Fold each of these.
Amino acid sequence: MTNPTTLYTERLQRLEAARDQLDQRSRRIGNLNLLLFVVAFAVLALAAFRSEVLLVVLALLISGVFVGGLVALNRTNHLLQTTLTRITLNQRGLARIRREWRLLPVYDATGDPAVADDGASLQQIDAATAADLDLIGHASLEQLLSTPNTPVGKATLRRWILNPAPPTIIHERQQSCAELAPQVAFREDVALSGLLLEAGNQEERY
């Protein structure tokens, strides 16, 4: 299996190259759309002044191209945002290996309804003890394993940490981890979906 540091570094290089290409494409399409808008407006104004049907048709054609450009710009920006999110995920992967805690998210369960729904009141290890043992909080086991990106996923991770499982369950989880470990692309896709979903939910809230 490829060294994790090498793997994440190579993926970051490819993603950063793709980001630069998408950024340039977005700028070009944006500039073209601006030019098309100005030209369409000028032609339409000239058509109104001269009352020429051909100029009106030309303005409509240019407007159609402008609308197509807007669609292309939207798609490009969506790809760019997705690529930026993938870059963040790979940067966090490297940060976990290097223990760069400032680059890793810290889960704050305060006011999170998912925690209450997940039976946090039944936890076997209280929050104060867990913090003393570096199970939760800054530079903790939870922060090191902070791959979940949805409230339910984060609450589940915290529940598993604060509620030690029987050996059989632990063995099953270890088998699942071993199976998923080499599937970097799949794990990245799942994490990406969670981040984009949570970002969409936050936009709806505000």
Note: The two ends are 44 Å apart (CA to CA).
Amino acid sequence: MLCVRDVLTMGKTVVILNSPPYSGKDTIANLMAEELQASKQEFKEALYEETAKHYEVNVHYFTFIATSRKYKDNLLSVFSKKPKSFGFGVTPRDALIHVSEDIIKPRHGADYFGKRAAEKLTEGLNVFSDGGGWWNELTPVSMAADKTIICRLYRHGFTFDGDSRQYYDTDTLPDSLKDSITICDIHLEDGKPQAAIDSIKILLRS
């Protein structure tokens, strides 16, 4: 059975959890951090920082409202009052999209957030709970890692409908990553996140 000691000798190993919103990937990432001392990473961390900077709000406050089911799709006066705001006020979700797609990527490239995430990889196991299905974002992380595993998680009743994210598509896998990435499909069972972690452990040992 895989143990913490094994994980710490893996070099920089990356596990990407790729699944629809609220399907359980954060729970799995938290359990991996607890059980295997995995370092929790997020592509979105740099986006939260850049968006908070753009709208001149505290990054901890913005991260809270941007990740809250209650607030992330609500119009907030804090944005409508800012001189850099657009339209008549935006939701935190709209703010993230605006900064990402209209400001950062046109200026710094589609792989910018991947490069920022790659800088924060640690030795041992790194688990991302926000794999969005975009190869240009993942490429810098995979290039900086010794091993990359993408876990496409499927759970009955959960889809990407209405979301810009998607499952990583093997048909569009860049040639530069074909020898360095393992892709697996895991079907989640309600109330049994440990079963998914056990499947990931088998992949890590292989």
Note: The beta strands are 12-18, 39-41, 124-128, 147-154, 181-187.
Amino acid sequence: MPERNGGNKFSRRELLSFFKPKNSKIDTVPEKNDAVDPWSLKISRRDFMTSAACGSLLSIADIPLAIGLMEIGIPQGNAGASEEDYNELFRNPAYGYLLTSIISPLIEESLCRAFPSETFAPKDNKMHWEVGAPASLAFMLMHNIDGAYLGVIPNSLSFEEIHVTSFISGLMYWKFEREGGLAKAAVAHGAHNATLFTLGLALIKS
């Protein structure tokens, strides 16, 4: 190995520097500890597609999971909306998609992911499940507030149905929020709801 004057050997990085072009960033190490802005609405095409696909797949997985939970005596459902409420949305699909796939995800992800992420989690790129798990539990309980889902003034907290699948999906949304901000979580949430709404429409029409 070449040596400096005085006999000290060159380091590997110093040797590479002799061969790299001037102003090259070949030895630049990207910063891996940058925190994502919890409220960021920027999203790449790749993240958009990945989040949407994961949200849709999770919604399909929710169905057998909910059925299995009901089989063992854990009632599933959404106390925030009655069957008539859903039928009203199905009668007006444009409004139904707008509410379930855009408005609700943005509001819920702001309250249950972006706000706690900014307020209670350290500003780094780690998951911090000690914040994400309680936030997901709060997200689950939101679906037990009578009237909350359709924007009606909440009037009671019901535990007749425990929306376990909301807790599970909330954990995924938390992961996406920590990785890519509000936009990434809201896209996954929106795709999840849109898939379920589409399945509901198909059942109504069949």
Note: The chain has six helices and no strands.
Amino acid sequence: MKLHLSNLDVTKHVEIELGDITQFVGRPNTGKSLAMRAILREKGTVYLPYSRSFFTFQNLVLQLSKDFVTYDEKIYNLVKPLLRGQLKYLNDRLVYVEKDKVIPWEHVSTSVLEVMSFLLSVKEGNIVLYEEPEAHLHEELQLLMSIVLYALSPFNRIVISTHSQTIFYNIVHLSLLKPTKEELKDLFEDLKVNDYEALVDAVEKA
């Protein structure tokens, strides 16, 4: 897929060819977000804008409190390492459980809501436009999210904008060096994360 963009803030004209995973990196106000929005007209596009504010998360909490909230099981298996707890259905409601205790959605951390926002938005086969995935994640979770985004790239076209060196360099590292299963398992063990098997398998196939 190619984009031909003109008069985009400081950019007079640019041609961008999107790969399986594309990163827009640059100073603020250089047109990264505008370039991403130019892709929105493509069918099957999911857009997670930077403006994932407190009020956005409030709306997410309300959505999660309703019955029959669903998600893509394949995507969930990949993001599991980012969650300390697990998702379960209780009386047709999706709940978040840590150490066998249900945590009300209004009491979970912002990082969990960030992961849930991603999980509920993305389905297999989507074009995913994700602005600043690092916004509500500490550095370890940024590292894990970058691995998830890379793992998704064979069956979802991924386009992100980021100011995070952790996300940028780790995606480049994964793309160029292709770590082995054993290396990935060692990393996840060092990070003390659980349920990483599906993510390891997906990275190996990417």
Note: Residues 139-152 form the longest helix (14 residues).
